[in-house]
Amino acid sequence: MATIEHWIGGAHTGGVSTRSAPVFQPATGRQQHTVLLGEPADVDAAVRAATTAFAEWGQASLSQRTKVLFAFRELVNAHSREIAEIVSDEHGKVLSDAAGEVQRGLEVIEFACGIPQLLKGGYSDQASAGVDVFSFREPLGVVAGITPFNFPAMVPMWMHPIAIACGNTFVLKPSERDPSSAGFVARLWQRAGLPDGVFNVVHGDKAAVDAILDHPGIAAVSFVGSTPIARYIHQRATAAGKRVQALGGAKNHAVILPDADLDFAAEHLVASAFGSAGERCMAISAAVLVGDSDRLVDLVAARAAEVKVGPGRDPASEMGPVITAAAKERIENLITVGERQGATVAADGRGLKIPGYEDGFFVGPTVIDRVTPAMDVYTEEIFGPVLSVVRSADVDQAISMINSNPYGNGTAVFTNSGEAARRFQRGVHVGMIGVNVPIPVPMAYYSFGGWKDSLFGQSHIYGPDGVDFCTRAKVVTQRWPATSAFSEASLHFPTAR
Ligand code: NAD
């Protein structure tokens, strides 16, 4: 059984860590690795390595940085299958889904390859007589990333390629539940020619996170995870004077209007609710039926019962297990509470046993109908393969239901009416909206982020917002006067001439 170590200054190290945690294979329910849990001294060692590396990397030319970025892109592409296998084994998601995660991360690396274009500043010739004004952006220094279990390769790639392309150095604290892809990616960065110390990994739990939040050598913290922790990260790290973006949890609604193609909507609801066992921050967890369409519930429940649940490495599997035994128990309990509170279970995934994998953390696709906004299955972020069906009289009532929810990450509408879709997209208080697209994750050249309790801080992640988050601006106003012009100086506040 391997012990997963930190990666500091270009080498694996155990540092001073004495604590560790088991890493499970969710499909079998058995422990497959042990991960070290970092102490403040390990975080400090990583920050010192990153600070030393920043002295050179922060001055590296755009062309030097771009060369490394392109080489890294080639290596991640060449090794995408291995990364996906690591993700599938530790997270549980099926291999094709893990491959999709790596692909979406790769797209952010490709975006970062265009850094010379992205960092072009503005220039105003002759802003005043003989005076020019121009702007440019500089790196911040050491940037830290703290990431969740559900996309162990992709979410860190939302952060480090852009931070590093901008000239920063980086300390990653991955999820302790599926930590192995971080070390693999670190070695690819090294092979791509990134100087040692620019990319570091410290594994761990709250002790390592708190050390990051308080460390005076870290300029900015990028966090993705659950809402209570996102709120905490934002408060503590901003109090320590850092720039912070903290993306939180979600409850994503899909509204199905009476004019929608119900077969199309049912297929997409099943895919977006049960893909990755519902452990996606953009998963649809609430279907809002406008009108009383029992046919849609029947279609979704029938398709849910057909989803092939099994180990991630089996090519026949469409959906894998959930992350831990505790997650399985919590999800199954919430379904039972929903039933007790008056909802109807139309497809029941509780108590599922997969032959040969009896100890795996499997929960089958579950559809709960007649849910109301007062029930726990609606108010909780379940983060499992559970779709709640709520009813609404019209599109406006559906919009106000979405807007009453504390989360505002993603949402979708299924309709054939352009007018209704437009009313929906303008009316909802949500950051990412799909029209007949249930998981509207923005492409790498836009930015990703929710509203309300789904994001603390102003900045969305990756894309143009990511570049802004990882840099700060300077504006230079300059004049090269002929000696005679000195006589024009005045004590008045300067205005343009
Ligand atoms: P989590 O909040 O439990 O953990 C995220 C990170 O925070 C991990 O690295 C973990 O080690 C650390 N952490 C956990 N508890 C901590 C504590 N008490 N103090 C300090 N650090 C702590 O989240 P998770 O269970 O790994 O991931 C699932 C959650 O992430 C869901 O809520 C999901 O919606 C959310 N998520 C959001 C997005 C988004 O873009 N908005 C994307 C992916 C996941």
TrEMBL record:
The enzyme's E.C. designation: 1.2.1.27
Aldehyde dehydrogenase domain span: 19-476
Enzyme class: oxidoreductase
Keyword annotations: NAD, Oxidoreductase
InterPro entries, A to Z: Ald_DH/histidinol_DH, Ald_DH_C, Ald_DH_CS_CYS, Ald_DH_N, Aldehyde_DH_dom, MeMal-semiAld_DH
Classification via SUPFAM superfamilies: ALDH-like
Pfam families the record matches: Aldedh
Gene Ontology biological process terms, A to Z: L-valine catabolic process; thymine catabolic process
GO molecular function, one term: methylmalonate-semialdehyde dehydrogenase (acylating, NAD) activity
Gene3D superfamilies the UniProt entry points to: Aldehyde Dehydrogenase, Chain A, domain 1, Aldehyde Dehydrogenase, Chain A, domain 2
Transmembrane feature ranges: none
PROSITE patterns named among the record's database cross-references: ALDEHYDE_DEHYDR_CYS (PS00070)
NCBIfam families, sorted: MMSDH
Protein name (Swiss-Prot/TrEMBL): methylmalonate-semialdehyde dehydrogenase (CoA acylating)
Species this chain originates from: Actinoplanes lobatus
